[in-house]
Amino acid sequence: MNKNIYKLICLLVFISLKVNASEPVFKEHLIFPLQDKHVHSSCIIELPNGGLLCSWFQGSGERKSPDVLIQGARLKKGEPIWSSSFLMADTPKYPDLNPVLFVNKKDELYMFWIVTLAERWEYSLLRYRRAKDFTSDGPPKWTWQDDILLKPGDRFVKQLKKGYSSSSLKNTGINRDFGFLVQDAQSQLVESAKDLRKRQIGWMPRTHALTLPSGRIILPLYSDGFYVGLMAISDDHGATWRASSPIVGIGLNQPSVVRKRDGTLVAFMREEGDLTERVLISESKDDGETWSVAIASDIPNPNTSLEVIALDDGVWVMVYNDITEGRDSLALAISKNEGGSWEQTRNLEKISGGKFHYPSIIQTKNGLIHITYTYQPGINAKKTIKHVQFSQEWVMQSD
Questions:
Q1: Residue 41 — left, alpha, or beta (φ > 0 → left; ψ -120 to 50 → alpha)?
Q2: SS3 string of 217-241?
Q3: Phi and psi dihedrals of 301, rounded to 5?
Q4: Which of 106, 118, 300, 399 has its CA 20 to 30 A from that of 62?
Q5: Domain coordinates of the chain in residue numbers?
Q6: For residue range 335-391, what is the model confidence (pLDDT) as tens digits?
Q7: Single pTM value for the model
């Protein structure tokens, strides 16, 4: 298709959305054309000027591919199409993965990501960049870069041991059904946690950071070495960070954190493996310092990432793969009682053989919901990052 014609079509769609603003809104398009490289783990945010910024990793593979780097693109406020891609970060000869974007209360942009050492997830190094000038064309003008070095203390070991012996975990039936296999793995993890080196590296981001009313920043992290969650906590706008207690469970990964009206934090996590094929849930009553043992919900999960946010009106929205096998169905669900129950599931994608996964979700100041995700419309098909935006009314409609 001629590029000018494509732009005209996008503009007409955009104008029609503004004219019919009272009607349910839905708009979709690809951030860049379908292509052969592996593109994955996107993150979208709204900037102070109303524009959108998205980042993702791109290259020939993941942790074993040194050419993998972080790319980005912009959607300016009032414009119908995304900018051309630009470089956000590249550590020569090492893979850069899992970017997470965040704007603090001082209007500083942070990008968190990992550099994977020795081709092993558990040897990943957590890094960040910071910029004050980040709303103009092209990449942000980074002014600072550093590593985030966390020191989970002795309570990390104690919480692992306590969590594995808790009645809430045993009552899931996993320990009972798998017997000594699970118990042996738990014992090995507790012993590994005593090694300072092992518990200080390998912490990886995936979902959005959360700013609490106190100003505290919570950055959800996970480990493929311990299969637990952890929060990086900052009480000084991101200048320094420390570790929370771990979220203990069986094979949990990639927490997404949302806050209830009463201050309770709820972490929703994928299950690494197929023991329960359900989303795992944990809670914190002390602003992310300590967490309950994660237990399985009734929400299906095929070992894939998900994200949950609270909308301005208090309704929660989850974007997830609503199946127990594969990644060819990506859906939305809403909760009107802060995660007590979920309803109104509506599919964003459902194509047999496709892969639609690793979603990132936000609500912008105008009330619209935006999601980006890895988009591969068939087996061996080319890939891109897709962006959809829609109103809450659209979610409430049936497919």
A1: left
A2: EEEEEEECCCCCEEEEEECCCCCCC
A3: -150, 125
A4: 300
A5: 29-147
A6: 999 999 999 889 999 999 999 999 999 999 999 999 999 999 999 999 999 999 999
A7: 0.92
